[in-house]
Design brief:
binds calcium ion, single chain, 2 domains, 6-stranded parallel sheet, alpha/beta, Rossmann fold, about 325 residues, about 45% helix, binds beta-D-galactopyranose
């Protein structure tokens, strides 16, 4: 009897040792700036899909609070994450995040919110996956320029000048500033004279986009000849405001251009409300970020061949944008 008890104790002890002392399960931690952003939700889905049958991911949202995101990152590190993927709340906080990860030797991949060069230079196990904001701005401008030349009636007051409004994304975001700048540049390069009636931020979301558009309409009403929103969600909000003001019925039309080509954006293209958008390739951005994180997690230096995406400037992957019109949706 005593021998049996001794044997059982030994087995119990061995099981405990195996449970605690053994290798921790491999995991890649992911934190995104907020959970209710349409484009980011698509990237999340893509990261989750890429991880299926492979190194698992744990995806958290930081509720738009940098402090909370920093804690999530610390927690991932403590729990032995082998790499971390970050869509930062405030891209100027990237330096602090890089420092934390460098001290614990946990490699990092940022996406969508680009750290400044000085921060990227702080450690070589830091990568960035994104899309060139200026490219999307140019494409959005190109869509509107084509519409202008194909439809003389778009110049509603017949003054030869395009009166337009811009609903911008979050202030300080590289996509906000560059999309806005290159959108107007593309139109000017096509020989179109511009008059910007209003611009304001719609913080990337539909409700704010609608409120901002309502305001623009209350100031300028029918003087507005076109709307550019820095993303589809704000464009969709603007379309709601325009519908309330009588547009998109009885032949009243307003050209509205967005960026992202989210599922809701594509539906609006098919409905004929959204004139055009630019595909911000969530699928490839998510897959590239995951593939890089996986290589780094395995202790390897990612190469274009091993991740399946071209790496430029050593540690950047740029996913191209594409124009999407009604017939492509
Ligand atoms: C942009 C995207 C926006 C929003 C933003 C968040 O690239 O077009 O819709 O998701 O990123 O950082
Ligand atoms: Ca005009």
């Amino acid at each position: 009897m005593r021998r049996i008890i001794a044997l059982l104790c030994l087995i119990a002890l061995l099981l405990t040792i195996a449970g605690c002392g053994g290798e921790r399960d491999e995991m890649i931690g992911v934190t995104v700036y907020r959970s209710d952003d349409s484009f980011i939700s698509e990237v999340r889905k893509s990261i989750a899909a890429a991880s299926e049958g492979d190194v698992p991911v744990e995806i958290l949202s930081a509720d738009n609070r940098q402090q909370m995101q920093n804690e999530q990152i610390e927690d991932f590190i403590e729990r032995g994450a082998s790499a971390i993927i970050v869509n930062s709340v405030d891209r100027t906080a990237s330096g602090v995040i890089i420092e934390k990860c460098r001290r614990s030797s946990v490699p990092l991949v940022f996406f969508n919110r680009e750290p400044v060069k000085d921060d990227m230079a702080k450690w070589d196990k830091v990568y960035y996956v994104g899309a060139r904001a200026e490219e999307s701005g140019r494409m959005a401008g190109g869509i509107l320029a084509d519409c202008w030349y194909a439809n003389p009636g778009m110049d509603r007051n017949g003054d030869g000048i395009l009166q337009f409004v811009i609903i911008k994304g979050e202030t300080g975001h590289q996509d906000t500033e560059l999309r806005t700048e290159y959108f107007t540049e593309a139109l000017m390069e096509r020989g179109i004279q511009l008059e910007k009636l209003h611009e304001d931020t719609g913080l990337w979301n539909r409700d704010d986009g609608r409120d901002v558009m309502n305001e623009f309409l209350s100031y300028s009403g029918d003087r507005i000849e076109a709307v550019f929103a820095n993303n589809d969600d704000m464009a969709l909000g603007a379309i709601e405001a325009l519908k309330d003001a009588g547009y998109f019925t009885d032949g009243r039309y307003m050209p509205v251009v967005g960026i992202d080509a989210t599922p809701a954006g594509r539906r609006a293209l098919r409905d004929g409300t959204l004139l055009g958008t630019v595909f911000n390739d969530s699928g490839n951005q998510g897959r590239a970020a995951y593939n890089i994180a996986k290589e780094l997690a395995a202790g390897r230096i990612p190469t274009s061949e091993s991740i399946g995406y071209e790496i430029t400037d050593d540690r950047y992957v740029w996913i191209p944008y594409t124009t999407v019109l009604r017939q492509d949706a």
